[in-house]
Amino acid sequence: MKIEIAKAERMSQSGSSLLRLIQNNNMPILDLFVRESVQNSLDAGIDGMDYVNLQFLTGTFDSEAFSQELEGVSEKLQDRYGNEENRFLAVRDSNTCGLTGPMNYDSVVDNKYGNLLKLVYEISKPQEKEGAGGSWGLGKTVYFRVGMGLVIYYSRIKTESGYESRMAVTLVENETSDYVLIPPENNGLSRGIAWWGRETGENKTEPLTDEAEIQKVLDEFGISLYSGEETGTTIIIPYIDENALLANNEVVYEAEDGNGQYIPVWRKSVEAYLAVALQRWYSPRMNNPVYPYGKYLRARINDRNISYDEMEPFFRVIQSLYNRANGNVTDFDCLKDNEENTDTEEIRLRNIFVDTNAGTLAYTQISRDGLGMGYPDNHPSPYVYTNVEMGKRDGNAPIICFTRKPGMIVSYENTGKWADGIPSAMDQDHYIIAIFVLNTLQKFRDLENYTLEEYVRKSEMADHTNWNDWSIDAYNPRIINKIQGQISKKMVEEFGAVNEDTGTKQNSGLGKLFGDMLLPPQNFGKKAGASGSGNGGNTTIASHRSVTLSIKSKDTKYFSDGTMRIKLILKGKENMKSAEIMLGIDSESGIIKTAYWEKQMGLPLPFYIQQAYVTFADEKNKYNPSRQKTLTPLNSRVVDGGFGAELILSDGKGTGVKITGTGKDRVNAEIVLTMRLKNREVLSTFYLGNLEEQ
Predict the structure, then answer these.
(1) Are 592 and 583 in contact (CB under 8 A)?
(2) 516-550 pLDDT tens trace
(3) 88, 129, 273, 452: which is deepest, by most CB within 10 A?
(4) Cβ atoms of residues 135 and 457 within 8 Å
(5) Containing H/E element for 540?
């Protein structure tokens, strides 16, 4: 193949600058490679196909034979790598359109460069397809960092007259290095960039199209030509250093037994690492026929299929959450047995979009067993799978991830703006996992040319590892900041808040809450402890001249799902029309009413009444179970003879129970409350609200 050396020209990139251009020195190279190569393939999926096929290939090749194909650098490659076998890494797709478009710049019309010129010969030419992955045209530079800078591009496309194969080779190297391959120009200047292909003029090439020549190069790597009606692209990176790739930006975890470091099994081979990295970033789209925005992904590592059943349990959870966020609970949903701890919430922003929905948050609190971490599976923790630090929280910090239309996970976060303020899981045996899925079709109210998808897409850097707010002219809607704030609020409402400064463990707060619920609340009633214990183990917690409110301490129970059952007795001393039993927040200065807590303090309710069972005593002052009435937010009023009960609601959550009397008989009611505990650090109490006497 003939060489074309990039000339030193004004405003041109050099090899050394291209190698730094993606500007991500934190994420492992193999992860960057997987994210970029898979997204390129998915963006190129062709109409009429349900999925894109993707295969990662590894193996050895004969350096001496291969080097002879590259004019101008053969001898230096031999000096550097000798006659021994070397390793390569390749990615091959099908059901994709391939590297279409003009073969050379003379054929470009209206700046339509096409896939071939953009990928092989250009830089900073972004994807123009709506909802595509890239918006900067810089991600492909990771290919030059995986090996020593050589990249082979082979593709087969469909043309008007049939099919055409194309092959080109690129080398990007640091031109300032002491050891370079590309020969300098006459004046000694070098950009560190070269291409190989078919000669079309002096120092000018374009891709090979002769299949016999292409086959000769592919044979060096044991890779076959596309055939029949197949179209697609294969990218081959020779001269890789597997040990260096596996060690790059490795996150170090301490072994659970405290003896040394824990090294995940996938850190021991490139093939195993690729299998996990594929799931880490593309679990929403892998083997997922209900992916809503086009073709799903089917992947292989060499000859091993990564089927749904072979996906790691943690990544099956991510896919189930993603599907739920899109309104799909499939037959293969792995969270069906964890429904009570799994939910979705719409994230709504006002005065920005045509309607308010910015996306959907799906979350679950799942046990170690649900993640396959127990015997005999012994899978590692979610933190290891996601390559994030364990953190220094008491308890397991939440893991939040987010994605838009292409279905690639942008990032996993357990600290920072996406996760700060969200509590840890209920105990060390559970994990909180959540995904935010952008409402990709949402339109701006005042910006006709932008969808929410395009706004967020352009906020990503070249490596697509974060979302950031940015200004459109002078307008900055601060969408990402608001989404993060809404997510934090929703998660706090669901799982409660943790005071990071005190360092108090949740279990201690839980014990304190339950302990106080079993005793008379502090600062309650006219005099502390004045009422005594009452009858039958009842503790009077509020007293009025017409009614008393007691708690049956021995019947108070709490459960592992974050709920609590409390039994209260409301007895009339005189006839009364109505009495309100209100839930409040117990503080050193007295009771804080829930309305004040929400509206004045701007805080979510730390607990609320999920359900209430009310039984009015019969003529013999007995509570007959057959007369028990159930109150829920959907059935908030009941009657029994001349007595009635109503669940008092605030934004759909129970904050009290109103009992109404006959005006002729004294009330005697047993009220059993099921409470949802959202914040286990805040103490609850009850008080008598509005009373209407006869």
Answers:
(1) no
(2) 443 333 333 333 233 344 444 678 888 777 788 88
(3) 452
(4) yes
(5) strand 538-543
